[in-house]
Amino acid sequence: xxxxxxxxxxxxxxxxxxxxxxxxxxxxxxxxxxxxxxxxxxxxxxxxxxxxxxxxxxxxxxxxxxxxxxxxxxxxxxxxxxxxxxxxxxxxxxxxxxxxxxxxxxxxxxxxxxxxxxxxxxxxxxxxxxxxxxxxxxxxxxxxxxxxxxxxxxxxxxxxxxxxxxxxxxxxxxxxxxxxxxxxxxxxxxxxxxxxxxxxxx
Length: 202
Fold this sequence. Notes:
This protein is α+β, with helices and mostly antiparallel strands and 202 residues long. The chain has 2 domains: 71 residues, 3-Layer(aba) Sandwich (Glutaredoxin), CATH 3.40.30.10; 103 residues, Up-down Bundle (Glutathione S-transferase Yfyf (Class Pi), Chain A, domain 2), CATH 1.20.1050.10. Helix content is 48%, strand content 8%. The protein is built from 8 helices and 4 strands. The chain has a 4-stranded mixed sheet, covered by helices on one side. α1 packs parallel to α2 and α1 crosses α8. The longest helix is centred in the middle third of the chain and has 22 residues. The radius of gyration is 16 Å and the shape is globular. The protein starts with 6 loop residues before the first strand and ends in an 8-residue tail after the last helix. This is GST C-terminal domain-containing protein. It holds the Pfam family GST_C.
């Protein structure tokens, strides 16, 4: 897909005035890409698109829902899915991997089965020994979605860390994961979101 010129319209609860939540990945992607975009209430979204929010309407007028699917499309539009075919393929997998990490962290599964946290973070650690970011040496939509995932990791396993941008206690066992988290929090789009006055997650 080629970049679409015009306004991108994102729809999420309270128009992201109370928290960024699942809109973190799409908003960071749009901001990093310097796209023209707005965020509005779900009541303003086109009907019949999907049940879950956020939803997005592209400049072409086409709309879609579900954060991972939106990120795949936005990554293709803005060239934020890697450069090679292998990177683009792995980016799609990594979006779903961090989505699973988020679900398990939110649901408390890591407390019930801490070995799952070790397995997930070991997977990321191995990848981050080879590249600066999760897919390649430049940030991709998978990294931006991972900000959302690690906000929940931090909230569940190191409550004081979330808004400060520090890494979770668990992640401190993994040198490259911690380095990646530091690098992510140095990105202009992430800094802007953190200093917006709006909580990252509820």
